[in-house]
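chain below, 120 aa
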Amino acid sequence: MDNKTKVSQLKLIVQKFCEIRDWDQYHGPKDLTIGIVTEAAELLDHFRFKTEAEAREYMANPKKRLEIEHEVADTLFMLIRFAQMYNIDLSKALTRKMTINNKKYPVRKSKGSNKKYTEL
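prediction:
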């Protein structure tokens, strides 16, 4: 479905869901940022204290994978809601940031490395 759904459609789904519930009043930039971090932390909690092999095994378990998908969806919901509420064009923002990242992480210096750009 990813290849058939536009970001604008996702924004509309999230917007309608929240507006029907009269949640605009609770979705200031600070609160949505807290929501993004909280949901991302709930995703992280599934992998805390696991080795890389255990994490991959966890993802192979259908029940656990569904839990992960729910946390990913919750995080995406908050991010989309932030973008929708504050008129952020996610495609444009990502494209712009990738241009910056391409300069920070040139392939010749960063290929096969996980170092931060300041250490390359």
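The chain has a mean pLDDT of 96. Residues 89-120 form one domain.
thats it, cya
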